[in-house]
Structures are given as structure tokens and as C-alpha cells.
Design brief:
Layout lengths: L4 H12 L4 H8 L3 H8 L10 H14 L3 H30 L6 H32 L14 H6 L16 E7 L3 E7 L2 E8 L5 E5 L2 E6 L5 E5 L2 E2 L10 E6 H12 L2
Antiparallel strand pairs: 1-4, 1-6, 2-3, 2-5, 5-8, 6-7
Helix pairs in contact: 4-5
């Protein structure tokens, strides 16, 4: 280790007085290796603390130097060494800390954005379904003119089907999907639609008597006939075809009227 001002001065003062390390050792009982360590400022070879200051005070007294002034020079030199040692330790500690890869915060931001998008889409889709189901049903659900209780008691239950000769109500089909799916819709034997439908879209188709609906992802398709939810087209993960007529409405109405 290169010597600093303190060590050089200590050696210079000793040599000016023609005093050897052995003589100082005999007079102060300080080992030669400690004396050399002080002159070379090899602080790691010294015991440190009050021992170092005791060595410096004894040497300065033996050489006839001002003890306090010499101790001040030692404190300055040793303090600089301690600061440098602390900086090296801090630098080594920082080097041991692994840096976070750049893709970790990027992946976290992407995950948060993806989660927020999924939550927003789910809320919008749920709200649309709630609005559709909470909308008042068509004229089929409008109550008949009020009659007195005695008339109702004596009257026989009305049949579920339309009376003979009555005109069939027009059919309205609503098609929506939970995932992007290709859907084919035929109305009264005429092809009306054969395209992919995206989530969030709601397609409506009119017919007089019959719909035939086919889909690649049958479980992802939601069908509503005149505002009434229809059964799934097929099993999950398979394609399927379903035929819808006014009979499906009567079946749903009959199922809803059971206690």
C-alpha cells in the first residue's frame, strides 16, 4: 500500500533523529510490525481503536513530537482510510444486488392493462344482458282486460297455442356471442347471414315462422327468440344447428308458468 502524509512524516521524524524501529520497540514495547504498519499506513495490520492512538501517542512522546498534533494527523489519515473502506463496502454491496430485468415492470404493466380490459368488457357485457332481460316483454305478456273473480273462477284455462285461425306472431331472433364465432342464420328457408360475430355485437333477424341457426362454437352463442332465451345450440367445443319456431316460445312460456 502506498504511504500517505502521516506515515511519511512519522518515518521522516524517526530517521531525522536517527532512531531505529528496534529502539522504539525497546522503549515503548510496540512490536516492530505495528511500527512498520504505521509508517506504511497499512491500517488493516493494526489492532485499531484506542490501541492505534496509544501507539501514536507513545511514539510521538519518545521522538519528542507534539502528541496532540500528531494524534490529529493520525485521526485525519485514518478517517480518510475508513471513508474509502466504507465506500468500497457499499460499492460491493450494490454490485451484489441483482438489477431487475427491464421486462419485469413491462410485463406487470401489460398484465394490469389486460386485467383492466377484461374487467371493463365483462362489465359491459353483463350490463347489456341485464338490460335485455329487464326490458318489458312484447305484446304477448300484456295482460288481458280485467274481469271479475267469479268469471275467472268459472272460465276454463286458455290453451297455450294461438286459437284456430289466428295469425302467427312474427319472430325476432337476437344473436350475441361470448367469443368470436362464425354464425349462419336462415329465416323461412332464406339465408340471411353467414359471418363471424364479435363479442359485444348483437344481431337481430326477422322471420314469419322459422329460423335455422348453425354455429362453429355452439356453446358461445346466446339466442333470444322474441326476448326469450333459447337453449344452447350444442355441446361446448362442438358445432351445432338448431331450428326455432313459435313452438319454442310456447314451450318456454309453458315452462315459466309452472309453479
Amino acid at each position: 500500500m502506498a504511504r500517505g502524509n502521516f506515515g511519511e512524516r512519522l518515518k521522516r521524524e524517526r530517521e531525522l533523529r536517527e532512531v531505529t524501529l528496534e529502539e522504539i520497540t525497546q522503549a515503548t514495547r510496540i512490536g516492530p510490525r505495528f511500527l512498520e504498519a504505521l509508517e506504511n499506513e497499512e491500517w488493516e495490520k493494526l489492532p485499531g481503536g484506542v490501541f492505534n492512538r496509544g501507539f501514536v501517542r507513545s511514539i510521538a512522546h519518545y521522538l519528542g513530537l507534539g502528541e496532540e498534533a500528531f494524534l490529529a494527523e493520525y485521526d485525519l489519515a485514518y478517517g480518510i482510510h475508513a471513508d474509502q473502506l466504507a465506500q468500497k463496502h457499499a460499492q460491493k454491496f450494490e454490485e451484489r444486488i441483482p438489477q431487475t430485468p427491464w421486462w419485469v415492470p413491462a410485463a406487470m404493466v401489460g398484465g394490469i392493462l389486460l386485467l383492466a380490459t377484461a374487467l371493463i368488457f365483462g362489465a359491459v357485457y353483463s350490463w347489456r344482458r341485464f338490460v335485455r332481460h329487464s326490458t318489458p316483454k312484447p305484446a304477448a305478456n300484456i295482460a288481458a282486460p280485467a274481469v271479475n273473480s267469479s268469471t275467472l273462477a268459472s272460465a276454463s284455462p286458455l290453451p297455450a297455442s294461438n286459437p284456430p285461425g289466428a295469425a302467427a306472431s312474427p319472430l325476432d331472433l337476437s344473436v350475441s356471442v361470448s367469443t368470436m364465432t362464425r354464425v349462419r342464420v336462415q329465416a323461412d328457408g332464406t339465408l340471411l347471414f353467414e359471418e363471424s360475430i364479435r363479442p359485444g355485437e348483437n344481431r337481430h333477424f326477422p322471420a314469419k315462422t322459422e329460423f335455422v341457426v348453425s354455429a362453429a362454437g355452439s356453446s358461445a352463442v346466446l339466442l333470444e327468440l322474441n326476448g326469450e332465451a333459447m337453449p344452447p345450440i350444442g355441446a361446448p367445443g362442438t358445432s351445432g344447428t338448431i331450428t326455432l319456431t313459435g313452438k319454442n316460445l310456447r314451450q318456454v312460456s309453458g315452462g315459466n308458468s309452472q309453479p
